[in-house]
Amino acid sequence: MPKDRPQSIAAPARRRRVRSTRVRDGLTSRPRAAWLLGPALVAGVAYLDPGNVASNMTAGARYGYLLVWVVVLANLIAWLVQYLSAKLGVVTGKSLPELLGERIRRPWARRAYWAQAELVAIATDIAEVIGGAVALQLLFHIPLLWGGLITGAVSLALLVVHTRRGPQTFEFIVIGLVAIISIGFVAGVFVAPPDGTGIAGGLVPRFEDSGSVLLAASILGATIMPHAIYAHSALSRDRFAADATPVPRLLRATRWDVSIAMAVAGAVNVCILLLAAANLAGAHGTDSLEGAYAALRDGIGPIVATLFAVGLLASGLASTSVGAYAGSEIMHGLLHVRVPLVLRRVISLVPALGLLAVGADPTASLVLSQVVLSFGIPFALVPLIRLTAQRAVLGRYRNRTATTVLGVLAAVFLIALNGMLLVLVLTGA
Q: How far does Cα 392 stand from its chain's mean position?
């Protein structure tokens, strides 16, 4: 149990022993700062999943640089949200679903809360499996259904690694996939640079029509993902449960971890939108991933298009594993049912494979799945802000007033945008 963790809110020591590389500092043994990094980089995969690619590519192709500000704002909000989630796991030794499961007393209310969280997890999985299937089709001409099965099988293998080799080995693999994702999606921006004036204009907050509002909600849902909020607290819990490092040092390392992860995710997401805005605007068929790939191949070259497809494949493989981890944690924390990760992965594949089997449009399914995710944000974000502001939960590590105010403003903004989207949908605008 980390030093300085309040006894009244500390979780029992976990059976899993967390390994760490240590160096001598006088008479004490302290972990290297770099060895404390990792949970945020894994959770950050959620910000680089195929849903992000579809939303940002579609936004750039349809509206040019108009929604750059949405991507930037989403990543700034994401930094705050992911840090609060990680802090909750570090200080309490429990995940957000666990804490909610303890506080929601009525069984029917706990099941209802789980149902919406499970819907979010399913929407997440749909985006990730379909994205991997599309990438395999683009690269190897594999039918979408078989591509979905392959994506699911590889994610199963990654989850087996997590189960048998522990969180750090899993982190190393996922971070390697993040590097592939970054190269795949950023390379095109250097080959065909965007317009600087257009970028500056895109930083001014505004909308053009109801379609731009829909895409803004999709971008926010793809960036500030509810399952990433649930997962990050659990990832931090698993990594540091048996670590003797003092809590203040863990929190400093966590801030660096989140900053690095969000900087990478933010830069990649902006580059995806800029790539589409600079090279795909007005091109036929660019509102689909397949069309975007073809336009990149014809306009910039086959190397950039291939890198894009490889990045999309790595994105699907990495993010679907993290999504399955989050879904398992949600079920365990809220229903007190522990489902093995591998079994959970098999069950959660069914909806995505069903959509592929009936021939649903892959890109439309991706974008709409992100809109579903945006409606799940308040159910994860509001409890997170409330819990991290309470002394009874975090003791002296509770949020400062300014942090809580920023969190409330972010929640109000996201809820208002989702409300605007709902009105537009209901009125047919």
A: 29
Are 293 and 309 a contacting pair, CB within 8 Å? yes
Q: What is the pLDDT of residues 306-344, one digit of tens each?
A: 999 999 898 888 888 788 788 888 888 988 887 776 777
Grouping H, G, I as helix, E, B as strand and the rest as coil, residue 207 is coil
- Quote the CA–CA distance of 130 and 149 in Å, as a whole number: 10
250 phi, psi to nearest 5 deg: -65, -40
Q: What's the token pair of residue 64?
A: 């040019």
Q: Is the pLDDT of residue 186 over 60?
A: yes
* pTM (whole model) above 0.70: yes
Least confident of 66-70, 95-99, 288-292: 288-292
Under 8 Å between Cβ of 213 and 207: yes
The residues that bridge with 22 in the sheet, in sequence order, are 31
Residue 93 contacts residue 235 (beta carbons within 8 Å): no
CB 138 within 8 A of CB 116: no
Q: Which amino acid is at 250?
A: L
What CA–CA distance (Å, rounded) separates 177 from 379? 29
Task: Give phi and psi for 30, each to the nearest 5.
Answer: -125, 140
Helix ranges (DSSP H) in 193-301: 196-202, 210-223, 226-240, 247-279, 289-299
Handedness of CA 140, 58, 129, 181 (dihedral sign): positive
Residue 198 near residue 350 (C-beta atoms within 8 A): no
**Residue 32: closest CA among 19, 14, 16:** 19
Note whether 294 and 138 are within 8 A (CB).
no
C-alpha to C-alpha distance for 369 and 46, rounded to whole angstroms: 13
DSSP string, 331-372: HHHHH-----HHHHHHHHHHHHHHHHHTT--HHHHHHHHHHH
- Closest listed residue to residue 42, CA positions, set 253, 233, 276: 233
H and E: helices and strands count for the chain: 17, 2
pLDDT grade for 213, boundaries at 50, 70 and 90: confident
Write down the mean pLDDT value for the chain: 82
User: Residue 320 in contact with residue 151, Cβ under 8 Å?
Assistant: yes
In the block, tokens 């309490």 appear at 92
